[in-house]
Amino acid sequence: MNTKELMNLAADNIRILSVSMVEKAKSGHPGGAMGGADFINVLYSEFLEYDPENPSWMGRDRFFLDPGHMAPMLYAQLALTGKFSLEELQQLRQWGSVTPGHPEVDILRGIENSSGPLGQGHCYAVGAAIAAKFLAARTGNPTFAKETIYAYISDGGIQEEISQGSGRIAGTLGLDNLVMFYDSNDIQLSTETKDVIDEDTAMKYRAWGWNVIQIDGNDCEQIRQALSDAKKEDKRPTIIIGKCIMGKGARKEDNTSFEKSCKTHGSPLGAGYRNTVLNLGGNPDDPFQIFPEVAQLYARRTEELNAIVAERHAQEAKWAVEHPDLAAQVQKWFTGEAPQVDWSSIQQKANEATRNGSAAVLGVLAEQVPNMICASADLANSDKTDGFLKKTHAFKRGDFSGAFFQAGVAELAMACCCVGMSLHGGVIAACGTFFVFSDYMKPAIRMAALMGTPVKFIWTHDAFRVGEDGPTHEPVEQEAQIRLMEKLKNHKGKNSMLVLRPADVEETTIAWKLAMENVDTPSALILSRQGIVNLPQANDYAQAEKGGYIVAGSDAQPDVILVASGSEVSTLCAGAELLRKDGMKVRVVSVPSEGLFRSQSAEYQESVLPYGAKIFGLTAGLPVNLQGLVGHNGKIWGLESFGFSAPYKVLDEKLGFTAENVYNQVKAMF
Ligand SMILES: Cc1ncc(C[n+]2csc(CCOP(=O)(O)OP(=O)(O)O)c2C)c(N)n1
């Protein structure tokens, strides 16, 4: 067993590197990193099981950091395991460096998730723990049952509301493969924790059904014992509440203690830096060093890991020989490739709501995509994710043989769990709720877009046609908000999200195909509650794959072009009939995704929506939804206020979403 002296030396090494990175960058968060160093050192030098040769090994333990501001601690730790060089550490927060201000997912370097918005990181861990349970049950590959998912949470994450959802879900599902360390250091950014929180956190987690262990979070022996006990737990998730010292070892200019101070949370140590490094046994003139004893500690750990993973790989290989077809499938799942789906097998009933069209697709996906998990925030029968549920069953404590995740009423936690499942790998995650509640999920959507996690968001009840539920439930500005993500590029230069609002059930099948084939970014499907008359029979739905296209029945050399997405397209088709009776030539264009449409060639875009054409747009959302499509010669009929409570057909009349109003508005353009 490693001696206490050696473990303390290694933790001090992490502290020295952390404070030195921040000092060099003249920016960052040293205090928390100094307090958490003991835990992360014990975890990485004695517990975390990964393949030193293959960072993306599917059976690895995973470490999810919640407080991304503690990036220096993680980078320093990963420097000890050889994933970062000392030179790279010195580039903390600099342009183009591999050590950005907050960690950004980089599996090859051992970073499982981007983190920064407090609270989300530990919820990804809950999702990853669910994914591991699911894969274990679905495949029988023994490696998945051996995974431990570790999470690191701080006061900020404990205070964020999402911890309620994460704690409840992990406890209810009995995720005994989840071990979370709570760095309880009594200090946060602008106050001491006692000024804002007066709860019994241990009792709270106990009430959620967690195994709670309380220790001195700077004592390596207590940490080791706690982690050993947590690994033995076989019914509940474990939280190790470690009382840590903020800024452990920090000194001021006069060499008095600088520990337990808010001032060390988010600024370099400044005048106290040299004394601090000296106090920790480092050399302030040459601080970026790994002590030889610490290098040996980690070299020994690498040898141990090689032996551990050799055994695990042997177990995996034995399983693969016994289950060759399944083994080949699992390999494929972890490449993240799009699944094979027989899209022609999907039977749609004409004129149904697109949420029902989605249910028809989900029923087929449940049968044909064995690594897909679908979730709902207590709306499965309304958001029609029950199309999936009917072909499987929901996860329960001790039984992950199904593929449906009942998240309860917790949209953000559900979204983050799905992000976590996706980060785990091997799993395709989808989740549903009402579109108006996408507001509750936005922080997770943003992180999924940033990380490129291909979660499928299913949002139904897409417009004021929710009707009697009234304005609280009627999305108006949500489409504009979500479509902004289509305009935002990720660092690979792609639209950070694919947002699809199909015009009828047949287009819904195509939208789902696009979403399933989009393995690089999150996708959204925005679906109607009410029935929609199908587009004209001759419509070539395959064209929807271009994001926007001319609907069948359109006239050549039109006098006017009518453009919309979703259910408004069929209203335009009805309006076009009235205009034709008047002798006008009309083209109808369906644009389920402006982002995708704008990714097509300029010629194609011009062929659909020629520059300078007279274009009329109809949207049940804010007019801005169509501004980029109608151009300078156009006109948009949209909704510019919150909705109202009434039957939806009354709302259609009152708000002007009728064929007659389309006719009137278009006539007024001439
Ligand atoms: C959602 C969110 N809100 C606010 C912040 C800004 N912020 C970063 S760290 C922090 C204080 C957190 O304190 P704690 O978690 O105790 O970390 P420590 O002080 O121990 O480093 C805050 C408010 C954030 N990163 N995320």
Question: Please, could you describe this protein's structure?
Answer:
The model has no long low-confidence stretch (mean pLDDT 97). The strands form three sheets. The chain has a six-stranded parallel beta sheet, with helices on both faces. α24 (624-630) links the parallel β15 (615-618) and β16. It has three domains: 4-305, 3-Layer(aba) Sandwich (Rossmann fold); 343-526, Thiamin diphosphate (ThDP)-binding fold, Pyr/PP domains (Rossmann fold, 3-Layer(aba) Sandwich); 544-667, Rossmann fold, CATH 3.40.50.920. It has 670 residues and is an alpha/beta fold. The protein has 26 helices and 16 strands. α1 crosses α2 (31-47), α1 (4-25) crosses α3 (71-80) and α5 packs parallel to α8 (162-173). It binds thiamine diphosphate (TPP). Thiamine diphosphate binds at residues 29, 31-32, 67, 69, 116-118, 154-156, 185, 187-189, 246, 265. Thiamine diphosphate is lined by residues 29, 31-32, 67, 69, 116-118, 154-156, 185, 187-189, 246, 265.
User: How many whole angstroms does the radius of gyration measure?
Assistant: 28 Å
Q: Estimate what percentage of residues fall within beta strands.
A: 5-15%
- Report the major sheet: 6 strands, parallel
Structural class designation? alpha/beta
The CATH architecture designation of the largest domain is: 3-Layer(aba) Sandwich
Number of strands: 16
What is the CATH class designation of the largest domain? Alpha Beta
What compounds are bound to the protein?
thiamine diphosphate
Q: Can you tell me the overall shape?
A: elongated
Overall number of structural domains: 3
Low-confidence stretches: none
CATH superfamily of the largest domain: Thiamin diphosphate (ThDP)-binding fold, Pyr/PP domains
Please list the strands of the largest sheet in the order they lie side by side: 7-6-8-9-11-10
How many helical elements?
A: 26
Oligomer: single chain
Mean of the pLDDT scores?
A: 97
